[in-house]
């Protein structure tokens, strides 16, 4: 198991290398640069800037320079938010996004799995249809609609919760963004759980258990173990996306996470920030996919990693 | 009885203590975005200036109505030939760490922004200072810059040539002083809380990017007795629709920017807490003066006249903008902008005239087809304006109009690198309150900002002449003459003057609208 984990992590290095390389050149092919502003810069000033940021050097030198620094864990300075290095920005903002993302993930898993199992056990009943209708609505209504509605109802009309900001990271500030972030995921998980649960309930080994007269909750527990596999494989990339922040939710609730960097970096042509976010996201995807595979081994006795 | 009295006294004392503890007033200020930096020499946008102006005070500053008043300097004189300013600093001027504000701090600052090593984006703004451009090019040493400390309290600034708008330039955030010792000691990190030494009404307590910037009152500030708010919390309210909700819930005392399409709703809901006021901002269409058929002034005039600006201002900008017939926005002291001659005509007459002009030029119905592509940067309002103008040009002139939108970086990179275009959306917000800052957009020598490559030697000559004229009234007259030349040629097409958009709670006192759109927290008080 340990050697498997190590092998997987080592195997991720070439993947990350390819991602870094593609991203590095791709972002530079986008027209315009970090210093093309609405108020144009004097040619002399632009030259000073390009020299200061070494943008005047050939691209391959810039690339090698970047790779060299990256290996040493240095993401370089941000071209736009110049008071900070990209490393500092990510280190500062990630805890907010990770806290929010993990809370949403936990809420989505508990709520989604419970709703899915509930619906599957009452397949084609009124309860099933109503749960699935709510889930479909959850998938289709985008969170930039859900979030303002939550703000209007619980913040403005009822005055129960603060509308924005992180506060001291207290629960009150966390409730609305967590719910808004979790709802669509919860809906997807509910739908996935329901369909795979229905399938699992029909499987031979479950039918055998039933025939042997085991109590309902034991049967459900065994069925759920198999039914969770598709949910888990969905959760890998979904979790990576959740913990690296949602630009929409973070903007609406004014949360200082990394979500905004993905958009700002690209729009500002802040090359190093784009690279930093790409590497971070790629890192999380690698780790979560590994966790998914390890979870598979725990849930499915047929899967072995030696 | 006496026991009751003692008890009452104790209660009264407790109340007094807790009232004292609560007396700290906090101003929650929505600032429309995060500063990219707090290094004044690297800043370029208004949300950065708003914070820096609270932290630092330049030689001159603004009052609440946006008028120039003495700042760190209590007085100044100008030599008869208009090239040497001598500023007397306040004897009681202090930095937030207690150090006196010295002339050498200003000298240090100006040398730093001009040093090519600093790579300051707005260095060129200060090129009127003697040798500034050469220093910035690396051809001279920073020590040769025309700024010198005569003694601890006297700053002397020598200019290349008379620059009538120089005091306006000094109000810009890039002219703010820096505390030499801390900048040298901490290098790039001098902007961090704990390192940042300020000479303004506030000092920097916390900076959590994306969340808030906390400023606290600077007890060493020379006018601290008149600063009424103890703490200013700046919030980067980038999602302005969400900021409106936070304002309505009372979480923000003021907020800069709100969605223009919400203006009617907000006015109904919030009454005069909604503040829209004209400021130095122009929306215009750059038009390619070097390309057929737009090289023909008649075509440019026809296109300009066919646009119904009242419709754009009222229907698309919901009244948060006013029709513009000049390049220079109204409101600059002592300057009356020249207007395009069709400003006084009715829209119907303008359209008739436009049809005539386009026919004379040989285009439109019966002539060569008039094909126009409008480029704009992705933005809801810009899109609606472009769609409306396309429709007007189609209706009135029979033009075939296509739209092309790109993100803002691509848009400006294309224009500044002289990419091919017909008509392109552009905007300009004055860096300082002087017509020169706008007229420069049409100069032949403006390599990057004159997108349409308009060129008229008479215009260039007049602008140059105005730069050398010291008498303010005469100078204003010459500048207006130049502006009239540009408008007669229709070298670019003015569309709208944008208004500044603020939400200001009834609790807030001391907030005044002004064309510079400057709002210092030190003038604000809050009734809780």
From TrEMBL, chain A:
Transmembrane segments: 9-30, 98-121, 133-159, 171-192, 231-253, 273-299
GO-annotated cellular components: plasma membrane
Keyword Zinc found: no
PROSITE patterns membership: ABC_TM1
Predominant localisation class: membrane
Keywords from the UniProt entry: Cell membrane, Membrane, Transmembrane, Transmembrane helix, Transport
GO biological process, one term: transmembrane transport
PANTHER family per record: DIPEPTIDE TRANSPORT SYSTEM PERMEASE PROTEIN DPPB-RELATED
Name of the protein: Oligopeptide transport system permease protein
From TrEMBL, chain B:
Gene Ontology cellular component list: ATP-binding cassette (ABC) transporter complex; outer membrane-bounded periplasmic space
Subcellular location: Periplasm
Main location: periplasm
Entry keyword annotation includes Metal-binding: no
Origin: domain of life: Bacteria
Gene3D superfamilies per record: Dipeptide-binding Protein, Domain 1, Dipeptide-binding Protein, Domain 3, Periplasmic binding protein-like II
Chain segments annotated as transmembrane: none
Keyword Transcription regulation recorded: no
GO molecular function list: peptide transmembrane transporter activity
Signal peptide: 1-23
Domain Solute-binding protein family stretches: 68-447
InterPro entries listed in its UniProt record: Peptide/Ni-bd, SBP_5, SBP_5_dom
Alphabetical UniProt keywords: Signal, Transport
GO biological process, alphabetically ordered: peptide transport
Family designation: Belongs to the bacterial solute-binding protein 5 family.
Name recorded for this polypeptide: Oligopeptide transport system substrate-binding protein
């Amino acid at each position: 198991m340990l050697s498997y984990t190590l092998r997987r992590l080592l195997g991720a290095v070439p993947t990350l290398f390819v991602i870094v390389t593609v991203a590095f050149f791709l972002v530079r092919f986008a027209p315009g640069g970090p210093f093309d502003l609405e108020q144009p810069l004097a040619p002399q000033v632009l030259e000073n800037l390009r020299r200061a940021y070494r943008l005047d050097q050939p691209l391959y030198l810039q690339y090698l320079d970047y790779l060299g620094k990256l290996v040493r864990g240095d993401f370089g300075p941000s071209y736009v938010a110049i008071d900070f290095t990209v490393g500092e920005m990510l280190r500062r903002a990630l805890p907010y996004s990770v806290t929010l993302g993990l809370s949403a993930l936990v809420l989505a898993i508990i709520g989604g799995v419970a709703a899915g199992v509930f619906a599957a056990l009452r397949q084609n009943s009124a309860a099933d249809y109503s749960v699935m209708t709510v889930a479909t609505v959850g998938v289709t209504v985008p969170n930039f609609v859900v979030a303002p509605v939550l703000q209007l109802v619980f913040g403005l009309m009822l005055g129960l919760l603060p509308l924005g900001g992180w506060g001291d990271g207290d629960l009150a500030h966390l409730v609305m963004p967590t719910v808004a972030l979790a709802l669509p995921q919860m809906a997807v998980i509910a739908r996935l759980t329901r369909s795979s649960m229905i399938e699992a309930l029909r499987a031979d080994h479950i039918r055998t258990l039933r025939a042997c007269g085991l109590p309902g909750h034991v049967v459900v527990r065994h069925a759920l173990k198999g039914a969770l596999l598709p949910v888990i494989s969905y959760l890998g990339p979904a979790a990576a996306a959740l913990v690296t922040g949602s630009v929409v939710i973070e903007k609406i609730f004014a949360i200082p996470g990394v979500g905004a960097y993905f958009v700002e970096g690209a729009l500002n042509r802040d090359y190093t920030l784009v690279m930093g976010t790409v590497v971070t996201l790629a890192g999380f995807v690698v780790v979560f996919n590994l966790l998914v595979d390890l979870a598979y081994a725990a849930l499915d006795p047929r899967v072995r990693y030696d | 009885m006496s026991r009751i009295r003692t008890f009452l006294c104790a209660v009264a004392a407790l109340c007094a203590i807790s009232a004292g503890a609560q007396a700290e007033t906090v101003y929650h200020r929505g600032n429309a975005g995060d500063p990219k930096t707090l290094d004044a020499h690297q800043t370029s946008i208004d949300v950065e200036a708003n914070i820096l102006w609270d932290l630092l005070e330049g030689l001159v500053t603004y009052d609440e109505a946006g008028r120039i008043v003495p700042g760190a300097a209590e007085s100044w004189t100008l030599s008869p030939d208009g090239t040497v300013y001598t500023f007397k600093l306040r004897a009681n001027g202090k930095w937030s760490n207690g150090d006196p504000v010295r002339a050498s701090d200003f000298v240090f600052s100006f040398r730093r922004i001009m040093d090519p090593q600093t790579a300051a984006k707005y260095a060129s703004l200060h090129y009127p200072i003697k040798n500034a451009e050469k220093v910035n090019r690396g051809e001279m040493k920073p020590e040769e810059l025309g700024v010198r400390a005569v003694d601890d309290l006297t700053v002397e600034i020598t200019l290349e040539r008379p620059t009538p708008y120089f005091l306006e330039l000094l109000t810009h955030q890039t002219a703010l002083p820096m505390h030499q010792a801390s900048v040298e000691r901490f290098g790039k990190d001098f902007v961090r809380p704990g390192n940042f030494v300020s000479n303004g009404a506030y000092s920097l307590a916390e900076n959590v990017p994306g969340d808030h910037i906390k400023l606290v009152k600077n007890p060493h500030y020379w006018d601290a007795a008149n600063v009424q708010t103890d703490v200013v919390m700046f919030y980067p309210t980038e999602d302005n629709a969400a900021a409106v909700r936070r304002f309505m819930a009372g979480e923000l005392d003021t907020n800069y920017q709100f969605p223009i399409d919400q203006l009617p709703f907000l006015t109904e809901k919030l009454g005069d807490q909604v503040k829209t006021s004209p400021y130095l901002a122009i929306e215009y269409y750059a038009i390619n003066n070097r390309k057929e058929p737009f090289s023909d002034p008649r075509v440019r005039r026809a296109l300009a006249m066919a646009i119904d600006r009242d419709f754009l201002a009222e229907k698309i900008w919901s009244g948060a903008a006013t029709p513009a017939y000049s390049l220079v926005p109204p409101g600059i002291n002592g300057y009356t902008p020249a207007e395009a001659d069709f400003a006084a005509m009715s829209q119907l007459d303008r359209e008739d005239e436009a049809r005539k002009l386009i026919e004379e030029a040989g285009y439109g119905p019966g002539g060569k087809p008039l094909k126009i592509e409008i480029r704009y940067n992705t933005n809801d309002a810009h899109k609606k304006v472009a769609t409306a103008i396309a429709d007007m040009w189609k209706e009135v002139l029979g033009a075939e109009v296509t739209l092309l939108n790109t993100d803002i970086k691509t848009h400006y990179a294309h224009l500044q690198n002289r990419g091919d275009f017909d008509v392109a959306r552009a905007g300009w917000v004055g860096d300082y309150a002087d017509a020169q800052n706008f007229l420069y957009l049409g100069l032949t020598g403006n390599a990057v900002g004159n997108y349409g490559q308009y060129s008229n030697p008479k215009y260039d000559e007049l602008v140059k002449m105005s730069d050398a004229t010291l008498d303010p009234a005469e100078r204003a007259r010459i500048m207006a003459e130049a502006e009239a030349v540009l408008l007669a040629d229709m070298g670019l097409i003015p569309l709208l003057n944008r208004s500044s958009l603020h939400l200001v709670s009834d609790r807030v006192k001391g907030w005044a609208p002004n064309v510079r759109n400057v709002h210092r927290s030190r003038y604000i008080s809050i009734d809780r």
